[in-house]
Protein 1
Amino acid sequence: QVQLVESGGGLVRAGDSLSLSCAVSGGTTYLYTMAWFRRAPGSEREFVATISWSGESSQLVDAVKGRFAISRDDSKNTVYLQMNGLIPGDSAIYYCARAATVGWYNPNPAEHTAERGYDLWGQGTQVTVSS
């Protein structure tokens, strides 16, 4: 059974950094677009970052541009989210997701930032940023 396992969350202070990892167990990241989403208390789950199956394209939500970076290492079947300059507004459960289709990365941002493009999800890792 293919599973996504997130790690690296924790409790930090504003301005600190965290590095989240998402490892694919029983499967691969190779040729799959990968993404991170997050859900803050009382809010809907929202898109954070995506990286294309080739690694050549990525996109971040405006709120984290300049602070977060997404990367991948297909030799380790792992995707990363480096988070710098954390603020309390970044507090959320962070979820990793894998695209439903091999080789998919829609040039329309509205598509590859939407949950419907992903069919494999991790359980999430909690990130809490204190002020």
Protein 2
Amino acid sequence: QVQLVESGGGSVQAGDSLRLNCTASGRTFSNGRMGWFRQAPGKEREFVAAMGWTGITNYADSVKGRFTISRDNAKNTVYLRMNNLKAEDTAVYYCAYGLGSFDYWGQGTQVTVSS
């Protein structure tokens, strides 16, 4: 089993930055994909960013140029650096892990951006 724990959320002003962290336990995750998703109130969960074990990344169009995903395999941790935050980034952010599909999910961390 893999356990994922997110941290780093909070309440900020538009234009501010935050870094979310997700630490995995239960197994090493050097192989596989790590991703970030978010769910805003009244909306479905949506993809934000992902990174494969080769280091290849992909992003949702809405966050390209503002968010950066990175990982430290030695620490079993994946990060999401969020710059120039906007009110529409307000959501619960979840990290996820899987070898193919995303099979494991964290509990989420709240990000609230005030305009």
